[in-house]
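Hi F.,

I've been meaning to write this up properly since the lab meeting, where we talked about keeping a consistent format for the predictions we share between groups. The idea is simple: the sequence comes first, exactly as it goes in, then the structure tokens exactly as they come out, then a line or two of notes. No screenshots and no reformatting. I'm using this chain as the first example so we have something concrete to point to.
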Amino acid sequence: MTTTPAPQIAEVVTFRLNDGVSDADYLALNEASKDHISALPGFVSRQLSKSDDGVWTDYTLWASAEAAQAHMESFMSQDFAPALVGAINAETMRMRHQKILG
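Output, unedited:
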């Protein structure tokens, strides 16, 4: 019997920065998170982009839903998290987890 592997999971977070936080400020804060996230089991890749209207997208690909969940559970306990999250306008933040289908 062949088993189908669990689908990879895309964690897609969109947001705007708080007033007074520059792109350079945010990118510097984000740099501190890279080593933590990329070292987690199940990490596949991560991209950060910004549209012309000021909406940022943090797109992280995980090997499984369990890996994405473990990341969410560990993130806020990291030293860098308060400053990184504090730069984001919480009212604009949206997080989705989606199965990769193709």
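Notes:
Helices lie at 23-39, 65-75, 81-86.
The longest helix spans residues 23-39.

If this format works for you, I'll send the rest the same way.

G.
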